[in-house]
Design goal:
This protein is α+β, with helices and mostly antiparallel strands. Helices cover 28% and strands 28% of the residues. The chain has a single domain, classed as NE0471 N-terminal domain-like, CATH 3.30.2020. The chain has three helices and six strands, in the order βββααβββα.
């Protein structure tokens, strides 16, 4: 696996997940990560046309490594099925960086600098 696809450090806070990639740090909001869940239940809901809104006050409660390829994130709404491969987290990091540079109001990137 490419070094670009594996973060050098991970910091879990209630409001966000900070990932230190080889080319810089990115902070992803908990609500944005929950909205991007790709578990079977969330995919089935999306295919069925069900668009659920994610409460902006949602928080991360736990993160567990899944082998060498992913993190399983647990959210304050009880959702714990999503496995977030490093490749997906890298993609979301790049989306957040682009959104922040274009709009100043990113969906995934956290405004906080903690």
């Amino acid at each position: 696996m490419s070094a670009l696809l594996i973060p050098e450090a991970i910091e879990l806070a209630a409001e966000h997940l900070r990932l230190r990639w080889i080319d810089g740090d990115v902070v992803l909001k908990a609500a944005g990560l929950r909205a991007e869940c790709r578990c079977a239940q969330c995919r089935a809901a999306a295919r069925g046309g069900h668009v659920s809104s994610v409460d902006r006050s949602l928080t991360l409660t736990h993160a567990e490594p899944v082998g060498q390829y992913a993190l399983q994130l647990v959210f304050s709404d009880g959702h714990a099925r999503g496995i977030y491969p490093w490749s997906l987290l890298r993609e979301l990091s790049q989306v957040a960086e682009r959104a922040e540079s274009f709009s100043g109001s990113p969906a995934l990137a956290c405004e906080c600098q903690t």
